[in-house]
Amino acid sequence: MMVTYTTVAVLITIFAIAEAKPKCKTFSQKDVVCTAGKTDYQLVRGLVSDNNKTTGITLRACRIYDIEYESFNDLNSLSYLDLSQNKIQNLKLGVIDEPKQLSYLNLSYNQLTEFPLGLFDQVTKLDLLDLRGNKINKLELGIFDPLTKLNFVDLSSNALVGKDLNPYIFDQSPHITFIDFSRNNMEGSPDNLLHAFQSLQILNLDRCFLKEVPSFATKPNLGTMKHLILSTNQISKLDNPATFVNLDSLELLDLTANVIETINPNIFSPLKNLQKVDLKNNIMKTIPDDLFRNMPKLISVDLYGNQLEEVSVNVFRGSPLKNLNLSSNRITYLQDNFCLELRNSGGKIKKFLFDPNPWQCACLHDLLKEVKRLGIEYNKGKYDGKRPVCVTTAEFNCKRQQNFNEMYIDMFNDVKEIHRNSRSA
Ligand SMILES: *[C@@H]1O[C@H](CO)[C@@H](O)[C@H](O)[C@H]1NC(C)=O
Ligand SMILES: *[C@@H]1O[C@H](CO)[C@@H](O)[C@H](O)[C@H]1NC(C)=O
Ligand SMILES: *[C@@H]1O[C@H](CO)[C@@H](O)[C@H](O)[C@H]1NC(C)=O
Asked: 9 pLDDT exceeds 80?
């Protein structure tokens, strides 16, 4: 009897251990992919280590809370290591010393707060480092120094405080082309934060608590930059015409969801390669007459969700504009033959979104006739008779005078209100 009991107990223990470990499978003799076991797990030597054929290891969401020394020993061909979506709080100095061929390291969505100096000293071939979604609040000077080949760095959704960042942290990584600081507090970052970069292409500063376009993002060495993302900040003014003078290569400028009210008419003119400007969800009431004039590559302008009443064709004169979005503004009319005039002044308008707006019905009628005649794509689906799209007085003609705007806007808001109430009733 005694003997049987012991055997059962031992068996159960073995089972429990077996289930705690992630399960790993090897594909094409070189790609190891693991899935989580039933409990949290400390990675140790033996699970994925000791195989010189392995080139890739995926330990995504494997409930790993710690990595023991030697876990990656004898992986002399390893170039790809995905440790994302685990619960790692610390990486001990030396744990990633072994796989010297490593070029891709994904540590995103863990609970890392900082790194011991020297952690990356042996993985000098690293090209991509994804640290998104941790709690990193400190980057010690020198931590990235061995990473001279670094190309892609994602630091988004961490607890970085820009004003405490040392501007020399990237000094030995001048070839970074992509860097993402979004969802960190980057207000007050040093002006020379990115001074070492020689070929940056994409800079993401979404949700960084910025009150103005930060000067570290517009320095002369950033003339290679193609995308600058400044969305969801608290930028209110763009009034210095020299702001973007250095950004010769910029193709996309995203200023979505700020509180921009005024824009200097010449601020975009240095951006000769700009293709797309996103200004949606700001609070612009007027748009300067020259703002997008003579921009040789400009094809998309999104002004959705502002408070514009007047938009003149002059704003876009000499630019090959294809897509324009004026939806959700305070527009009751546009100038006569707006689209034709756009085309006559260099525009190539193909897609034009203008609903909702507090349109005067007669003006909307003219515009709809025009877009249909010219074969321009518009928000067709919105005109299904299911909700109010315009307002009119007894007199059905388009009044192109600003002093009537207030009246039509009020009428439209009233109609919308009635419509909403009747639907909820
Ligand atoms: C892997 O290669 C190294 C040197 O190239 C060798 O010393 C080691 O024994 C090999 N390990 C395995 C598990 O084959
Ligand atoms: C890193 O892992 C996350 C989550 O598993 C994934 O969404 C992301 O695309 C990976 N990053 C890169 C650069 O491949
Ligand atoms: C505005 O219109 C453009 C096409 O002209 C479209 O690509 C974009 O998504 C629109 N923006 C919004 C917020 O709907």
From this structure: no
Here the CATH number for the domain that contains residue 332 is 3.80.10.10
At residue 65, φ and ψ (nearest 5 deg) are -110, -10
Look at residues 279, 317, 285 and name the one whose alpha carbon lies nearest to residue 300: 279
Q: Identify whether 240 is part of a domain.
A: no
Whether the per-residue pLDDT at 398 is higher than 60: the answer is yes
Residues 64/46, Cβ–Cβ less than 8 Å:
no
Say how far apart CA 345 and CA 318 lie, in whole Å.
6
pLDDT number for residue 1: 41
Strand 23-27 to strand 31-35: parallel, antiparallel, or no bridges (unpaired)? antiparallel
What's the pLDDT tens digit per position in 221-280? 999 999 999 999 999 999 999 999 999 999 999 999 999 999 999 999 999 999 999 999
C-alpha 60/C-alpha 32 separation (Å) is 11
Instruction: Determine if ligand 1 sits within 6 Å of the CB of residue 397.
Output: no
Note down the domain range covering 327.
Answer: 263-425
Residues with CB under 6 A from ligand 3: 280, 302, 304, 323-325, 351, 353
Residue 23 three-state SS: strand
Distance 179 CA to ligand 3 centre (A): 26
Domain count, the chain: 1
17, pLDDT greater than 60:
no
Burial group, residue 422, by CB count within 10 angstroms (0-12, 13-18, 19+): exposed
Q: Is the CB of residue 71 below 6 angstroms from any atom belonging to ligand 2? A: no
Does 126 fall in a domain?
no
| E strand or H helix at 410 | helix 405-424
Looking at residue 276, what is its pLDDT? 98
- Whether 158 is in a domain gets the answer no
124 in a structural domain: no
The reported pLDDT for the residue numbered 18 is 53
